[in-house]
Amino acid sequence: MKKKLILGLVVFLMASTLIYAQSNQSDVNSQGTMNAATVEQHGNTNMSDIDQLGWFNAAIVSQKGHLNDVIIDQIGEFNRAEATQEGNGNMARQKQRDVGNLAIIDQNGKENLAIQDQADSYYFWFFDVGSRAEIIQRGNGNEAYQVQRGNWNSAFAEQHGKENYVVQHQFGNGNSSSVDQRGTGHEAYEFQYGNKNTSTTSQKGGEGEEETEAHQSYVYQKGYGNTQVTDQKGNGNDAYTAQFGKDNSSTTNQVGHNVLSYTLQVGEGNEATTNQAGNGSFSTTAQFGDDNKSTTTQNSKANESYVLQIGDGNEQTTFQTGNSNESWTSQFGADNEAYTEQHGHDGWSGTLQFGNDNEARTEQRGHLNWSGTLQVGSYNNSFVNQHGSQNNSVVFQSGFGNYANVRQNGGGGNEGGNCGGGEH
């Protein structure tokens, strides 16, 4: 009787183990020539579904943990899909069409979601050309979406922490997009249409800290040969970039907390650089035309810069250090140049130029200084230098070859004005 009881217990345990082992599900359907599929699952209630149609396609699945889910769908030739998930409740979807696509998903943690959709490559990943999408997520609750059409596309997204979100869409030839997010709750959106676009976004912010404010980055590029780089460190920074045309370049660097940047470029060969350090600063840059250049640097906190350039070959530089300074620069025409430098706090500068080859330079040091410059025509020059506090300056020049030089020193409400030309 004792032997029968032990034998019954052994049979029960073997049956339970078999049922447990069989709780994982795998479905492989390959049609065509020389397709390969490899599935390895550990844990329980994991599911994998592989469908392949064509020649020399390969699919690899490796799952550990519980309730992980992978679906791979490939039609074409020489496509390769990989998905490795550890933890619980992760979900991966890979869909590839045509020739030579490569998609890799590696998720570690739980409840991460990754979706990849690639088509129209007609090149080969093993020659390091063709569509390639790679998602690596660490932590919990991250989401990543990658969609690519065309040739030579490459998208890479790596997220650390939790509840980060990234979307990458690329259509055309030679696009490349890369996102690296660390911390909690960051969002990145990258949309590229056209040829040879490239975008790089890196967001960091107090990884592992519950009270960290998230960063946001939005990039939209349409055209040929545009490049964009965004790097954010700190908490709660936002950067928005849109470029239309050919060979435009935008770089945004943010260090600090709650800084905001907008960049819009339409045309060819425009260049915009925004550097923000400190807290609570705001910058907006819009350029329309060809070969315009804008550089904005903000240090300390609560500075504001507004830049608008319409035409060709215009150049502006804004440098702000101190607190609560405000600068406005607008240029219409060709080959105009504006330079604004603000030190201290609560300064205000406005520069407006219409025409060609005008130059305006404004330098403020101290507090509560105010300067306004308006030039209409060609080859006009204005130089304003304010030191001290509560200085006011107004320059208006119209015509050809006018010159104004305003120097204010000391404090206590110095005022200067110029109309036409001359020196003060």
TrEMBL record:
<keyword id="KW-0732">Signal</keyword>
<feature type="region of interest" description="Disordered">
    <location>
        <begin position="189"/>
        <end position="214"/>
    </location>
</feature>
<comment type="similarity">
    <text>Belongs to the CsgA/CsgB family.</text>
</comment>
<dbReference type="Pfam" id="PF07012">
    <property type="entry name" value="Curlin_rpt"/>
</dbReference>
<feature type="compositionally biased region" description="Polar residues">
    <location>
        <begin position="194"/>
        <end position="204"/>
    </location>
</feature>
<feature type="region of interest" description="Disordered">
    <location>
        <begin position="226"/>
        <end position="254"/>
    </location>
</feature>
<dbReference type="GO" id="GO:0007155">
    <property type="term" value="P:cell adhesion"/>
</dbReference>
<dbReference type="GO" id="GO:0009289">
    <property type="term" value="C:pilus"/>
</dbReference>
<protein>
    <submittedName>
        <fullName>Curlin associated repeat-containing protein</fullName>
    </submittedName>
</protein>
<feature type="signal peptide">
    <location>
        <begin position="1"/>
        <end position="21"/>
    </location>
</feature>
<dbReference type="InterPro" id="IPR009742">
    <property type="entry name" value="Curlin_rpt"/>
</dbReference>
<feature type="region of interest" description="Disordered">
    <location>
        <begin position="271"/>
        <end position="300"/>
    </location>
</feature>
<feature type="compositionally biased region" description="Polar residues">
    <location>
        <begin position="271"/>
        <end position="287"/>
    </location>
</feature>
